[in-house]
Amino acid sequence: MLFCGHKGWQVSAFDISANGRSKALQLAEQQQTTIDYQVGELSTLHYQKEQFDAIALIYAHFPGAIKSSIHQMLNQYLRKGGFVIFEAFSKNHLEYITKNEKVGGPKDIESLFSIEEIKADFPDYDIIELEETEIELNEGLFHNGTGSVIRFVGQKLV
User: Fold this and answer.
1) Are 93 and 108 in contact (CB under 8 A)?
2) Hey, which of 36, 78, 93, 150 would disulfide with 12, CB 3.0 to 4.6 Å?
3) CB-based burial of residue 18 (10 Å sphere; 0-12 exposed, 13-18 middle, 19+ buried)?
4) What is the pTM of this model?
5) pLDDT at position 71, please?
């Protein structure tokens, strides 16, 4: 997790996990910075239209039925010219889980991503980077081994 509060950024985060919040606040304290970390469903958190200059979605996997609507909601919170930074497991990641369950990640293909889905979810963006790539994970007990991710960096045009 990257904390940029000490560089003049105001950092906000949300999750449905109170445990995630505790860990993030602890890391922020170690970095001598602050973070506005809210727990709850995105639609209940009262963010404002065009509130953010950048939004990072790092392994933010949502059920297939709502993931595009979450992206559309987040799009409203981003200013024109703002950036989306995205990394999450690809649909091809299921093959990697079959070979090594310790790599972790969702086992539901609908919660995973494809390049086509990202293009559809963020149509009014200048694509700076959009790729599917293989990575090596060494993230504690639950994410170890080779996996497949989608990476996207885009700048909002309208």
Assistant:
1) no
2) 36
3) exposed
4) 0.88
5) 97
State the pLDDT at residue 7. Answer: 66
Residue 116: the pLDDT is 98
Cβ count within 10 A of residue 33: 15
Give φ, ψ of 86 to 5 degrees.
-135, 135
CB 112 within 8 A of CB 93: yes
Type of residue at 79: R
Residue 115, sorted as left (phi over 0), alpha (psi -120 to 50) or beta, turns out to be alpha
Instruction: State residue 82 phi and psi, 5-degree precision.
Output: -75, 170
d(CA 81, CA 84): 10
Count of Cβ atoms closer than 10 Å to residue 121 Cβ: 20
Give the pLDDT score at 127.
98
Please state, in angstroms and as integers, the Cα–Cα distance from residue 77 to each residue in 12, 43, 82, 123, following that order: 12, 11, 10, 16
Structure tokens at 135: 């990575």
Which residues touch 7 (CB under 8 Å, ≥6 apart)?
A: none
Nearest to 125 by CA among 78, 89, 58: 78
